[in-house]
Amino acid sequence: MRHGKVGRKLKRTASHRKATLGSLSTSLLRHKKIQTTTAKAKETRRVVERVITRAKRAIEREAKSGAKDIHARREVAKFIHDRAVVKELFEEIAKKVQDRPGGYSRVVKLGRRHGDGAEVAVIELVDYNVGREAGKGGKKSKRTEQKEARPEPRPAEPQAAAAPAEPPAVAEPTSKQASS
C-alpha cells in the first residue's frame, strides 16, 4: 500500500520520472507556458514551485551578503539542465516573484486530447500574464481571418428623392451582333 507516499509515479521508473519532470520544468521556465497532461502538469508544478522558492531565497541571501549563492545555483541546476535557464531564473524570474509568498504557477485544464483521450492542461507562470486573458487574442480560424481580410463594403450613397432614376442605357449592337 502507498500510505503516506506523496506524488504521482506517472508510470515511470524513478530515474525516468526525475528526467521527465526536469525537462518539463526547464521548458516551463524557458517558455513560461507549456501544454502537457494534467498529471504531469501537477507534478511539474510541485518541482517548479520548489525551484523558484530556492532561487528566491538565494536572491535574498545574496542581497544581504553581496556574494553569489553558488550552492543554491548548483542545487537548482540538478533539476534545470540548461545554464541559460538557470541564469534567467536567478536574474529575472526570482526577482519578479520576490513579493509573492508562493503559488508561482497555475494549471489550467483544457479537456481531453483527441488521439488517446488523455486529460490535457496548460501550466504557466502566473506573473507573466500568458493566461486566459492573453489567450483570447490567440490563433484564429481561417474563416475568421478571411472575414477580417475582406474590405468593408462602402455604404450606399443616398440618392436625391426628387430626382427620378434614369433608365439603364441600352447597349448598342456591336458589328458581330448587327451582322447576324
Write a concise synopsis of the structure shown:
This protein is mainly α.
Top keywords for this entry?
180 residues, elongated, 50s Ribosomal Protein L17, Chain: A, mainly alpha, single chain, 7 helices
Please explain how this structure is put together.
The protein is mostly helical. It has a domain at 14-133: 50s Ribosomal Protein L17, Chain: A. The chain is built from seven helices and three strands; from the N terminus they run H-E-H-H-H-E-E-H-H-H. A hairpin with a 6-residue loop joins strand 2 (105-112) and strand 3. Helix 1 packs across helix 2 and helix 2 (38-65) packs across helix 4. The longest helix is centred in the N-terminal third of the chain and has 28 residues, at 38-65.
Going by helix content, strand content and strand pairing, the class is mainly alpha
The CATH superfamily of the domain at 14-133 bears the name: Ribosomal protein L17
Task: Give a quick account of the main beta sheet: strands, pairing sense, barrel closure.
Answer: 3 strands, antiparallel
Low-pLDDT windows of residues: none
Q: What is the 3D form?
A: elongated
Number of helices: 7
Percent helix, as a range, is 40-55%
Following the backbone from N to C, one meets helices and strands in this order, namely HEHHHEEHHH
Radius of gyration equals 30 Å
Instruction: Indicate the CATH topology of the domain at 14-133.
Output: 50s Ribosomal Protein L17, Chain: A
Number of strands: 3
In the CATH classification, which architecture of the domain at 14-133 applies? Alpha-Beta Complex
